[in-house]
Amino acid sequence: MELSLLTRKSDVEWWIEPQGTMRVPGIIYATEALVRDMDAKVYEQVRNVATLRGIVRASYAMPDAHWGYGFPIGGVAAFDADHGVVSAGGVGFDISCGVRLLSTGLKVQDVEPLKKRLADELARHIPAGLGKAGRLHLDGAEMDAMLAGGASWAVGRGYGTAADLERIEEHGCMAGARPDEVSDHAKRRQCDEMGTLGSGNHYLEVQHVVTIFDTTVAEAFSLHEGDVVISIHCGSRGLGHQIGTEFLKRMVLAAPAYGIDLPDRELACVPIRSPEGQAYLGAMRAGINCALANRQIITHLVRGSFGRIASRADLALLYDVSHNTCKLESHRTDGRTRQLFVHRKGATRAFGPGHPDLPPVFSEIGQPVLIGGTMGTASYVMVGTDNGEERSFGSACHGAGRNMSRHQAAKQWSGRQVIDSLAGRGILIRSPSPRGVAEEAPGAYKDVTAVVDAADRAGLSRKVARLEPLVCVKG
Predict the structure, then answer these.
(1) Choosing from 66, 343, 398, 407, which is the catalytic residue?
(2) Which residue, 170, 142, 139, is CA-closest to 154?
(3) What percent of the chain has pLDDT over 70?
(4) Helices (H) and strands (E) in the chain, counts
(5) Largest Cα–Cα distance of the chain, in whole Å?
(6) What distance in Å separates the CA atoms of residue 221 and residue 103, rounded to the nearest whole number?
(7) Phi and psi torsions of 419, nearest 5°
(8) For the whole model, what pTM was predicted?
(9) Does residue 146 contact residue 138 with C-beta atoms inside 8 Å?
């Protein structure tokens, strides 16, 4: 990105001043090096989002921002609940993609002798890959029950315990879901995909804690150096993609009737209070519940795998948070508390201490913010901050962010090359797709440490712990 287009406010804050039809400024949180590496499309998309009706305060981009469909990935935008718009592109195709972190009660020395057996066992029982089916089939009634109930539905079917629900965003069930607004096609795509990882950047990793940055918060999160943890990164699979595809088309067709002149067709949106807007919110909330249920079922399968190989393991849920959502939230802005629909696309909710939506166990310390790396790189646990509310509506980055297309990555690396290279570092990869491994090569992504450091310096969230992989199951 060309720095001359921006106004530098600090070493990690850059503004696109309002111009033309922009209603608010664009604000990018990143170091100079990260901004320079962002593609020019991020600048254009941040500007475009700033033109949308009812946007409040600013159009934001997180340190991992890169080009997306309409909205940049790493984009955050909040809209007035009565006069604003909702955009399917502002949520993305993988509705409620997110990260879940489990503790194990084990140390790295306990797992090293079992690593190969664990890798094989997890790969055998956690289906991964494009269109991969699981062992669970949902008929019409069960599909609707799942879309309405989320992780609560899964726990009610024996996949986990009620204690898990207290550590999940929305307590495991997104209110206001409308299974009737989800098409039969979307439901058919999902009926055999529950409890599966999917493809792309999704993964299940056995990781170990290598560095603690904040001992007080780490203690509250029960994280210590040498601990083995499990990270699950996936979303709503085919159902979420189908919802996004269908509603983007509907919004493109409906927008002119509401006097909405789109700067980019991919930025399709409609008024929140319109019939189309309400239909999308109902379907999207059902997609959120699908993702929460999916990660809950995978958790149950992981617990079974560990029980067979490492019987001393005690897999407790630390937290589960999504990074592709639009939610109605209360935020203080312009001197008053307002109801806003906050779009986070490739951006993680990061509420600070005292926020009423946090579980009691985290109320005084702040929300765990889970930042996924890519295969072979570090991941991070962060925590929400006191000033994150005014900085970005309580939002932070979600991962490293791509710096190379999948096609480019597959041309530069082979899957076998990546697998062998990581094995040499003691990281075992299990994947049904060598091409998928090549597309997700560590070199295809930004430096996740640079991204996390920028989020920390900007006050979006604060570093707690660095995690590195031992085993990675990929689609």
Answers:
(1) 398
(2) 142
(3) 100
(4) 15, 19
(5) 64
(6) 10
(7) -60, -45
(8) 0.97
(9) yes
